[in-house]
C-alpha cells in the first residue's frame, strides 16, 4: 500500500471538532504517506485548513456532510435517518474503497450499527467484535475483546474472536505467536458457564491459535495472555469496572496529597511522579477501540478523547490499514474453516 | 440474641492457622458476647489456647476435626469425601443451631457447595449469592452480588439477588432505603442482553426494593447505588478485574518511587501517604464475602487474608448473626412473593 487514506468524522466527540482537527494535523505531520478525508460541516474545518502548510493541505480532502449523529440518537434511528451524517459518510467512504479506514469518536452504538450494516462481516464471521489495548504489568499491553459490540454471543462466536484477536495481536503488536486465553471465573477445567466451556473445547480442538486456557479477571493485567477473549457483555463490564477503580485509586491519591501542609508540599514534589504514573496508566495511549470482523477498518475513539488520545486512534487506524488487518483476518478464518 | 457463637474453620487459608487464631483472639477481645468454636486439629490450637487469659479461654470451644479440605479439592470431592473436615464441621454446627454463623478462608468452591448442600436455600430463593463490600468514592462503600456463587442465573434469580442485597445493606450498613441497580453495558433502556432486560422489568414491576435502573461498570465505584446486582459470572469478573487494575496502579506507583535518587527520597516522605492510600483502598476492611440466601450464615474470608483481614471476616459474621440476616431475608422474600 503506497499511501493510507483515513476518513475522519470530525463531528463526533464531547470536546468539539478542534480536538480532532489538531489530531489530524499531528497525524499528517507524523506519517508522510497519510491522507485524511475530513467528514463534517465546512464551517467547522474551513478556518482550520487555512492554518496548514501547503504540504499538509495537499493531503487533506473535505467531505461536506449536513447531518450529525448525536450522542442521544438510538442506533436504529441513526441508521435509518442519518444517512447524510459525517459518521455514516466516513463509513460509506470505506465501503466504496475511497478510504482505507475510518475513525469516529461519536455515539458508539450508532457507529457499530452503521458499520455492521454498511460494511458487513467478513465471510465466516458471525459478529464483529470491539477490541482494544489495555495496560499490563511491566509496561506491557494486552488485547481484550469483545468490549461490547454484541451482548449475546455463542461459543462459535468466542472462537472467532480468539482467531481475530490472535491475527490482530500479530499484525499490530508484532507478537509472533500471541497467547490467547478465555476469561473465566476460575482457571480449572470445571469452572465456568456453558458458553465458556464450549468455547474452551472448540479452541482445544483447533490448532489455529496458541490457546493457553482460562484466565481470571485479575490476570488480564498481570497474566501471560496477549489476547483475552470474552463475550461483549462481560468484556464491557470488565473494562468499565477497571476504569472505575483505577480512577478511584488515582483520585484518592490526589485527595491525600491535599490534606495538610506536609502533604501539599509533598504533592508539589510528587507532581512529576504522579504525572508519570498517570501517563503510564493513561488511557490516551490505549485510545482507539477497533471494530474487527468487518470488510473494512473502523476505529472508535473515546468520546472525551483529547487531541493526544485522538492521535492514537488515528495511528491505530493507520496501522491496521498498513497491515491490511481485514484481509489477514479473512485469510486466517478461511484456513480455520478448511481445518474443521 | 444474648451471645453470638461463631464456628471458625482454622485449617483453611494460605497463611496458616496462626493468622486465624490471632483474629479469633482479637475478635473475642473486641466483642464480650462473642463465643468462638475452633474447628481443626488439636495440635494446631492447643498451644494457642494456653496463651489466652481465663475470660477469653472460657469463650472458646474446641472441635476436633481430622480432615482438611485442600485448595485443590474439587467441590464434588470435598462434598462426598471430606465429611469430617474442619470446613464441613463448621457448616454442620450452623445447621445444628450449635453455632450462629461460620467463617472459613478455605477453598471457595468447596465451601459454597457444602454450604448449599447442608444449609439449603431459604424458601422462595432459587440460588445463594456471594456478596461483598467494595470501596467507593468519598470513603463510601457499595455491595456487589453475585460474585460467583452460581455462574448460570435467570432473571428471577437476579430479582431475588436485588431483594437480598437490599435487606443486607439495610441490616449491615444501616441504609434506610438502599438504592439498588442492575449492572449493564449502558444506562439506556434499550441496552443489555435478554437476561438483564427481563430482570429490569421484574424490578420495575415490584415495589419491594428502591430500584434505580442500570449502572455501567465504572459506576459501581462512583455511582449512587448502594447495591449493584449482576450474575455470578459477570460479578466475579468485574470484581477480579478491578482487583487486578488496582494492584497494577499501586505497583506502578511503588516502582516509580524507586526509580532514581529524588524518587527514593520522595518515597520516604511519601511512605505515610502511600500507607494511608493503601489502607483506604485496602481489601482487608472489605474482607468477608457472605454467602446469602441460605438457612444459615456463611462468611468466606480471602485465602491470603492476614489476621487483620480475618478479623473483619469474623466481624462480618458477628454482625450478620446479631442482625439475624437470614430471618430478615426470609421475611422479606415471603412478603415479595405475597405481592406477586
UniProtKB/TrEMBL annotation, chains A, B:
Catalytic activity line of the entry: a fatty acyl-[ACP] + phosphate = an acyl phosphate + holo-[ACP]
Record's keyword terms, sorted: Acyltransferase, Cytoplasm, Lipid biosynthesis, Lipid metabolism, Phospholipid biosynthesis, Phospholipid metabolism, Transferase
Keyword DNA repair set for record: no
UniProt-annotated location(s): Cytoplasm
GO BP annotation list: fatty acid biosynthetic process; phospholipid biosynthetic process
PANTHER family from the UniProt entry: FATTY ACID/PHOSPHOLIPID SYNTHESIS PROTEIN PLSX, PHOSPHATE ACYLTRANSFERASE
Protein name, entry field: Phosphate acyltransferase
Native species: Brumicola blandensis
Amino acid at each position: 500500500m503506497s499511501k493510507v487514506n483515513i476518513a475522519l468524522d470530525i463531528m463526533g466527540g464531547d470536546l468539539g471538532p478542534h480536538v480532532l482537527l489538531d489530531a489530524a494535523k499531528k497525524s499528517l505531520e507524523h506519517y508522510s504517506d497519510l491522507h485524511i478525508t475530513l467528514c463534517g460541516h465546512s464551517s467547522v474545518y474551513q478556518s482550520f485548513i487555512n492554518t496548514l502548510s501547503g504540504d499538509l493541505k495537499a493531503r487533506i480532502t473535505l467531505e461536506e456532510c449536513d447531518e450529525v449523529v448525536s450522542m442521544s440518537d438510538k442506533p436504529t434511528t441513526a441508521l435509518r435517518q442519518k444517512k447524510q451524517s459525517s459518521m455514516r459518510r466516513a463509513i460509506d467512504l470505506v465501503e466504496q474503497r475511497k478510504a482505507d479506514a475510518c475513525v469516529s469518536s461519536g455515539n458508539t452504538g450508532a457507529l457499530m450499527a452503521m458499520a455492521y450494516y454498511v460494511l458487513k462481516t467478513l465471510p465466516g464471521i458471525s459478529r464483529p467484535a470491539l477490541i482494544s489495548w489495555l495496560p499490563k504489568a511491566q509496561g506491557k499491553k494486552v488485547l481484550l475483546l469483545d468490549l461490547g459490540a454484541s451482548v449475546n454471543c455463542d461459543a462459535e462466536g468466542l472462537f472467532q474472536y480468539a482467531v481475530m484477536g490472535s491475527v490482530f495481536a500479530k499484525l499490530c503488536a508484532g507478537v509472533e505467536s500471541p497467547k490467547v486465553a478465555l476469561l473465566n471465573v476460575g482457571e480449572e477445567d470445571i469452572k465456568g458457564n456453558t458458553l465458556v466451556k464450549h468455547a474452551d473445547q472448540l479452541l482445544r480442538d483447533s490448532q489455529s491459535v496458541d490457546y493457553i486456557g482460562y484466565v481470571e479477571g485479575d490476570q488480564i493485567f498481570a497474566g501471560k495472555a496477549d489476547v483475552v477473549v470474552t463475550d461483549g457483555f462481560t468484556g464491557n463490564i470488565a473494562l468499565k469496572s477497571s476504569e472505575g477503580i483505577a480512577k478511584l485509586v488515582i483520585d484518592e491519591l490526589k485527595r491525600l496529597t491535599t490534606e495538610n501542609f506536609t502533604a501539599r508540599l509533598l504533592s508539589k514534589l510528587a507532581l512529576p511522579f504522579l504525572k508519570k504514573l498517570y501517563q503510564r496508566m493513561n488511557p490516551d495511549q490505549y485510545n482507539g477501540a477497533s471494530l474487527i470482523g468487518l470488510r473494512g477498518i473502523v476505529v472508535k475513539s473515546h468520546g472525551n478523547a483529547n487531541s493526544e488520545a485522538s492521535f492514537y486512534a488515528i495511528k491505530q487506524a493507520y496501522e491496521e490499514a498498513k497491515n491490511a488487518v481485514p484481509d489477514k483476518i479473512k485469510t486466517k478464518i478461511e484456513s480455520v474453516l478448511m481445518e474443521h
